[in-house]
Specification:
Strand content: 5-15%
CATH topology: Rossmann fold
Radius of gyration: 17 Å
Shape: globular
Largest sheet: 4 strands, parallel
CATH architecture: 3-Layer(aba) Sandwich
CATH class: Alpha Beta
Distance between the termini: 53 Å
Helix content: 40-55%
Number of domains: 1
Length: about 120
Amino acid sequence: MSPISSIEVARARRSRRVLFVGNPIRYNDVSQWAMVRQWVALHGLEPIRELDGDVLCVIVTEDILDGRCSAKETDAVEHARALGVPCISVHDTTLIWQATARVRAKIGRSPVGASAKPHRDGA
């Protein structure tokens, strides 16, 4: 594997993509998983299931953190950690909030639906 450059780390920290790894099976885990995915989407971030490109953070089930997962899931988490991307339990909402705060703030400052060109009447 090639060394990670500071450019790659900087790109990951600006990404709006949040990777979800794992398959929750307990009722409380499923509910929390759905709630966090919805929260991510509502705050202008993009929930994804495959590690493809830059990601802001990785949300994982407790099974993933305990090492009870597939080789593919292990590889995704290890690759993200090697890039310096935080891997956070789906139940640790405080860390999720902190990890996404900078990007959410930037999204909040950009006007929704604003065009780069000014609107002209009749144009």
